């Protein structure tokens, strides 16, 4: 509804502009003829110059300016969309890197805990094996005997 209202206003403005332009052309032509002394019978014929009239030129210029403005706004919207997409991609990349680092840290923690348990077992075995010359047997009370 707003667009139709704007369009109606624009058409009315164009009609008024054409009317004023025609009046201006007629007045200018009349003044020129009075100055030159030409007959006044052709004044109406010259007022309707066709598509090259100033109102037509202004109308085309105005429409072209509107198109350029619309194209500029569309280009700005596209650039804004590109910036948003790049920002979202950057954030997703950062989140993925953070998840990867967290996963690697968890793997290191688990591996280090495993290695610590292995090292503790190896140390415990080496304590009992110093000076060992036979087999170690575990008694029922939990003490080792050689």
TrEMBL record:
Name under which the protein is recorded: Epithelial-stromal interaction protein 1
Residues annotated as signal peptide: none
Alphabetical list of InterPro entries matching this protein: EPSTI1 (IPR026185)
Keywords: Coiled coil
Coiled-coil regions listed: 63-97
């Amino acid at each position: 509804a707003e667009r139709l209202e704007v369009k109606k206003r624009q058409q009315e403005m164009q009609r008024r502009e054409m009317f004023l332009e025609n009046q201006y052309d007629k007045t200018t032509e009349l003044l020129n003829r009075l100055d030159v002394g030409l007959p006044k019978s052709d004044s109406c014929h010259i007022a309707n110059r066709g598509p090259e009239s100033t109102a037509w030129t202004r109308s085309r210029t105005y429409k072209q300016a509107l198109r350029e403005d619309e194209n500029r706004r569309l280009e700005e919207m596209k650039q804004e969309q590109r910036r948003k997409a790049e920002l979202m991609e950057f954030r997703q990349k950062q989140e993925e890197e953070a998840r990867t680092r967290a996963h690697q840290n968890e793997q290191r923690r688990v591996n280090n805990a495993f290695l610590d348990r292995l090292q503790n077992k190896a140390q415990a075995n080496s304590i009992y094996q110093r000076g060992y010359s036979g087999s170690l047997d575990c008694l029922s009370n939990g003490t080792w005997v050689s």
